[in-house]
Amino acid sequence: MTSPNVDLLREAYDAYNREGIEGVLGYLDSEVEWRNPPESPNADVFVGRQGVRDWQRMVDDAFRQMRFEPERIDELPDGRVLAVVRFRFRTPTDELDLEVPIAHLVTWRDGKVTAFSMYVSEAAALEAARLLPPPDEGAA
What we know:
By secondary structure, the protein is of the alpha+beta class. A hairpin with a 6-residue loop joins strand 4 and strand 5. The chain has helices at 4-19, 21-24, 48-60, 122-128; strands at 28-35, 45-47, 64-75, 81-90, 97-109, 112-119.
C-alpha cells in the first residue's frame, strides 16, 4: 500500500506529461518553493505558482518535449517523498532525443506540494535530505 503523497506525486507526473506545467499547478501550494539543481547554471528558487510558470518558460529554451518518467517513488521517514526519475527531452538545436536520471525531493502539506527540489542524482537528493552522509572531501 502506498502513501497518499506517493499516489499524488504519481498523478502529478502523469498530469505534467499530458498537460505540461499547467497540469501540475493544482498539486502545488500557492507559496511552493521550486528549486533547480544546485549544479544548474540556472540554480534558483522559484516561488509560487507563477514562479513555477516562470521556471517552465526558462527551461523551454533549453529542452523540448519534456517528460518525467518516475522509476521509483518512496516516502521517506520524515514524510517527504523521493522520486527517482528519467528526464526525457529533445534538444532544440540538434533535435536529439536524450534522457538523464534525476531525483526530486518533494515536501507535502495538506495534500499540496510546498517544496519541490531537483537533484542530479538520487545520492544528491538523499544527502540533501540528510539520509546519506556528505561525500568524504578528503577521499582520493
